[in-house]
## 1
Amino acid sequence: MPKEPISRSIQPQPQPSSSSSPPLSLNDAATLIINQLPPSFRDFAFEVADVILKIPRWQLVAGILLFSAESGNLVSPSLDPSWTTNGISLSTSTCPECGKQFTPYRLGQIFCSNECGLSHSSRPQSSAQGA
């Protein structure tokens, strides 16, 4: 008998209630998660859910996770150890090419612009190898 796809076998689970504050709706929770993404990803996710697909944001988040799992792409997610305490942090960085202070648009961004990245990569590399 063929295995049922993950997306059809998952049933909504009841949310635990807290006496101190009302529980978040799924859409509010998804919005909190999406707000942790870098601005370019965040804006794109909101546009896809709200404007293009016109679906609740939680459906976008759940759909992406399910699609990734079913297609075998959810094997090793990108995790940053700082997320356990700080959430995703895009603090100001210094460009190693021009020395300018900038706020990264994505995780792992090193240079302030494509021009600085290209300038750095087109410079001849010094060889530390001996003959």
Note: The beta strands are 93-94, 101-102.
## 2
Amino acid sequence: MCDHVPLGTDLCVDLNVRTPRSAPTGIGPVYPALMCDFGHDHAHDHHHFGFLVDTPAIRALIDETRRLTHDIRDDAERVEALKPAFAALLESDGWLPDAFATPDAASGMGGGIGQYALYRAEDASLCLFSLVVPVGAETPVHDHLAWGLVGIYRGQQAETVYRRLDDGGDPARAKLEVAKRQTLSRGGFYPLLPPTDDIHFVKTISDVPSVSIHLLANDTACVWRHKFEPASGLVTAFRSGYTNAPCPPERLEGAE
């Protein structure tokens, strides 16, 4: 258990059981020694994949993403081609249930931040989720490790993006500098093309919780990513977990 992780257990809402936050051992060289698993680890359940929210607007975006993934090999070109479909989802009303747009008091990311799976490919190649950040709250500085698009559906966010200056040779340390800051309101969005602009944090600056929509080429909340502390240079690996769906059991490369 990392010393900065709150002690206790997480409630896995869908299974109504508690499972301890735990950290795998025997971490391979790609990950730092300090590990924090904020997700819910339970048996693989097919009901938590596919369309967790099934609406024409979501299906249209996922279908277009699948088509372009098949037709366009270059990530940057694919993301560019996806922008009209993604913008259409952000501009549409009525497709996001209120239950997927509320803060989560038991948040794995802290600060009451809710992360709700809307669509998950069973092979972990694609996901769509909503991220709900309460008024005045902010995410940790983190990465995503996948190409995709992120946009604002409700409220307003301030985003701070970091540039990594070191070569990544020490997986437990990183030297970062602020690359840019921007403010986004509904309909505003940005691409993710790692390593460019992949490390950031966001803060809600509106008087209502912000809701951002993420379309990413992994199962974001269930993969091991990195949390950064720019002032100290510390890097820890973590899984944020979904509020409404468990992560399948998995072990890091090199784990025993």
Note: The first strand starts at residue 9 and ends at 12.
## 3
Amino acid sequence: MLGVSWDTIRLFLHVLAATVWVGGQLTLAALVPVLRRAGATIPAAAARRFSLVAWPAFGVLILTGIWNVVAVRSRISGQYETTLIVKLVLVLISGLTAALHARARQERARGLRRPDGSQRARRPVPRRAARRLACGPAESADAQRVRRVHDGVQAAPGRGHRAVPVPQPHDHLRVLRPRP
């Protein structure tokens, strides 16, 4: 049995974080086909929950990896050095691809990208702007339809509404109604 020392704590944390990061990704990848059959939104929900554990584990993996290199830097040479470089490149690729995948998934969820990866022609109204315009349930639907700003006036397409003034700071305190 190993005695408890900083070396064993460092290695334990590193192996635990690697197990969560790599093992979790492999497990999630194996479960996605089954989760899709259970419901269209279930894989995304599982991925969101996994990311709450995976990204902190990735951070611990990076920190303990640096700690490992600093602890054994005098012994890094030859094949060990080559293996370490390959490992670092794989960690970099793994982290970048996971981050890009998460970013693309968030863009699809916000309506900025289609599932096939192409960008939408128009961007939806940011939630903050919709809240600023909307002071009640009736205005909320109109505020979410606002798509473009032109000459200081926001056009509310559909329903035959005329343009309404661009909201100013603190306009959310009073009701903005479309002109008849």
Note: Residues 6-109 form one domain.
## 4
Amino acid sequence: MVDLREQYLEIPHQTAITKDNASISIDFIIFYKVIDPSMSVLRVGNFAGAAQNVAATTLRSVVGDMPLDDVLSKREDMNASLRVRLDEVTERWGVKVTTVEVREVNPPPGVLDAMTRQMSAERTRRAAVTEAEGQKQAAITIAEGTKQAAILAAEGERQGAILRAEGLSAGLERILTVARGLDANTMQLSTSRPSSRSARRHRRSWWCPWSWADF
């Protein structure tokens, strides 16, 4: 009797060498489903044992094409590559590999120490960058505030100059208005008034009732 439900197979830790010669240990799970019961019985005697051996060799092949950084950071790509390659093999057994999930990747101790130092250095670098960015933004804010203050001060001076000029213009306009309102007689009286010396001579001749010719 063949179980047609989806099943899984655990692949224990396998040692593999990456493209850049780093030795790592990986374990993963294979999810599969029988799609042809007769082929699954007639083409393979022990599917679980055969699948484990095929999975181990396929894993070494996939990891050997990837550098260590990609193995650690691109797990989804590794899962997809393993699923495709395993499915190519199990298809002739009437079995479909539906999913492959890498559970744990254990790099060598030296690589772990290097990764720890690298992460520490990266955190230090990011902290320094964040601090520098904060100082930069503070300097920009201060400079912008100084600029705005200078602009406002200049605008105040300009408005003050405009108001003073407008006040002087209004005063001159009032003077011209008063000047235009003076009539011709007022202007003539102002311009024909006798001098003080002529007035005094006129007064003396007016009070004297005789002249030197009478004597």
Note: The first helix runs from residue 37 to 42.
